[in-house]
Design goal:
5-stranded mixed sheet; two-stranded antiparallel sheet; elongated; phosphoprotein; Sig_transdc_His_kin-like_C; transferase
């Protein structure tokens, strides 16, 4: 009797071990196949094999359908992006001559005629605005498509700041604004040309929204992995709820609607800095000014 019970128990245990091993191996095989599919999808090498509708293949089949649809959506998105980029480039090329002509004829009218000077100035101002918008869109389009890429290298901050000061000498004199630069020998890892463009866009805003006789400062501070470049102004400031929106493409606050601009400078600045593995933080108080802190990777030791 005892021997029979023991035999039954042994048979039951062995049967359990067998079925556990069978289902474990089947589950392991399915997980391995799913992992292979994901690895192939990540590498862009997903095999287009037919998968059965068996019980244990249902999840695998759903995964394949999802990956296929993701690839299709990504392909469609890329095609639409390329169409838009080509359209922007075509528009920029086709408008280059008309915009140049508008500038030339507007300047000629301003010089030879003493009448309608206000209207002529408005035409020239709007032409400059249109030219800036188109050029900014072209830069964004080329950067997003990879035609223009940032090439980071060890760069001196002092040299970039001197370039920015030279760029805005006329504007600060016109508004009697003091542009103060710190003396620094720190180096960062960045593309100097594109970084000057990004910092210049921020400085341009600081000058634009600071009253005549105001101050704009640029300070530099070193951290463990980043160098922080602070652009500080005592201008009109930004409402707290608007800070997350200011880097949006074409976003412009109603409070600055009377100022020239198209709302693309900060968007481009953020894209450039992020492309170099950096980031931007903003602190501001309405009526008290703003501080834009640009963090760039510290230069590698050679």
């Amino acid at each position: 009797m005892i021997e029979t019970i023991m035999l039954i128990v042994v048979i039951f245990v062995l049967s359990g071990v067998f079925w556990y091993s069978f289902f474990y191996q089947k589950e392991k095989k399915l997980l391995n196949r799913l992992q292979q599919m994901l690895d192939c999808a990540i590498n862009g090498e997903l095999e287009r094999t037919e998968i059965s509708e068996e019980k244990y293949s249902a999840l695998e089949n759903s995964m394949k359908q999802y990956i296929d649809s993701s690839f299709l959506a990504k392909k469609n998105q890329q095609e639409q992006k390329e169409v838009i980029q080509k359209l922007i480039s075509d528009i920029a090329h086709q408008t280059l001559t008309p915009i140049s002509n508008l500038k030339i004829y507007g300047e000629i009218l301003s010089e030879v005629s003493n009448e309608n000077q206000e209207e002529i100035s408005t035409i020239l101002e709007q032409t400059e605005k249109l030219d800036f918008l188109i050029q900014s869109l072209v830069k964004l389009s080329r950067m997003e498509s990879g035609i223009i890429a940032v090439h980071s290298e060890n760069t001196t901050i002092k040299q970039m700041l001197e370039s920015i000061q030279q760029q805005f000498n006329v504007k600060v004199r016109e508004k009697n604004i003091t542009l103060s630069l710190c003396d620094t020998d720190l180096h960062v890892r960045c593309d100097s040309k594109w970084t000057v463009e990004a910092l210049g866009n921020i400085v341009d805003n600081a000058i634009k929204y600071t009253a005549c006789g105001g101050n704009v400062q640029i300070k530099v501070e070193q951290y463990s992995f980043f160098v922080k470049i602070d652009i500080i102004d005592d201008g009109i400031g930004i409402e707290k709820e608007e800070i997350p929106k200011i880097f949006g493409r074409f976003y412009r606050s109603l409070s600055v609607a009377d100022q020239p601009g198209v709302g693309i400078g900060l968007f481009l600045a953020r894209e450039i800095i992020q492309a170099q593995k950096g980031y931007i933080k903003v602190t501001s108080k309405r009526g008290k000014g703003s501080t834009f802190s640009v963090f760039l990777p510290i230069a590698k030791k050679e």
